[in-house]
Structures are given as C-alpha cells and as structure tokens.
Design brief:
The protein has five helices and six strands. By secondary structure, the chain is an alpha/beta fold. The protein has a six-stranded mixed β-sheet, sandwiched between helices. The radius of gyration is 15 Å and the shape is globular.
Length: 144
C-alpha cells in the first residue's frame, strides 16, 4: 500500500505524512512545484511538469488496488477508483464507485452555472473539524 497526494491544493499534506510515517507506508506528494518534506525516508516529493493534468497522470500510472489517494479533483478520483484505489477528499469524504457518477455530474453542472454567472465562489472553507475528519478517514482507509 502507498499513499498518493494530489498536493498542489491539498491542505492536509502534513497530516497525511504523519499517518504514513506512523504506519510505515510510502507516501508520494505529487505536484508541479514541490514541497518541503524534510528527510523522511518514506516521503517522496514528486515534481511533475506544469502540463495540464501531469500530476493526475503520474498518479494514475502508478496507483493500484489497496493504495490510497487524497485529492479534491473529481475526474482524478474517478480514474483512481477505476484502478482499484481508495480515494478521499481533503475533508475525509470518501469517493466511491457508487457516488462518483453523481459527483462528476454535479461538477459539470456547477462549472456551467459558474460560466453563466449564476454561481460564484469556491464553496465552503476548510475548517478545523475537516482536518479531524480527514485524519479519521485516512486512518480507517489505511487500516483496511
């Protein structure tokens, strides 16, 4: 089992690294800019090109059954579910085979509404409770 973090907009990188360390799991922090990860031997700072979806493609090429992916990117979540991985958003909500179709449809609808000026803003902010929910969900996903 490995953990993959779609890291560019992820507010829970540190929490995920702590969980991975506690369980002795390799974790891949994937971004197009790189992050400070110190000298942790099981933490891999993966810097990809700034090509559109480069981080997503890198993750999908490597992820498989039993792995855990952390992303807020719904199309990436769908691709990782197809590969057999467990997928969580940064608030700890699991993406599932059963719900991914609806999530993709809602994403498309919201994109259309934003383009028409009917909806603005990025949604609810990230709160302290979200961090706790994420940690609980990641622990559960790692344990099985």
């Amino acid at each position: 089992m490995d953990i993959y973090i779609d890291a560019d907009a992820c507010p829970v990188r540190e929490e995920a690294m702590r969980v991975a360390e506690r369980h002795g799991i390799d974790i891949h922090i994937v971004s197009n800019k790189g992050f400070r990860v110190t000298d942790r031997p099981k933490v891999h700072n993966v810097v990809v090109s700034d090509r559109f979806d480069a981080a997503d493609d890198w993750i999908v090429e490597r992820v498989g059954p039993g792995d855990v992916v952390v992303t807020g990117d719904i199309p990436l979540a769908a691709r990782c579910l197809e590969a057999g991985a467990k997928v969580l958003d940064h608030k700890g909500k699991p993406f599932t085979e059963r719900g991914i179709g609806m999530a993709l449809a809602m994403r498309e609808l919201m994109s259309d509404l934003r383009a028409m000026g009917e909806v603005s803003g990025a949604g609810p902010t990230f709160a302290k409770q979200d961090r706790s929910r994420f940690l609980e969900a990641l622990e559960k996903a790692v344990r099985g």
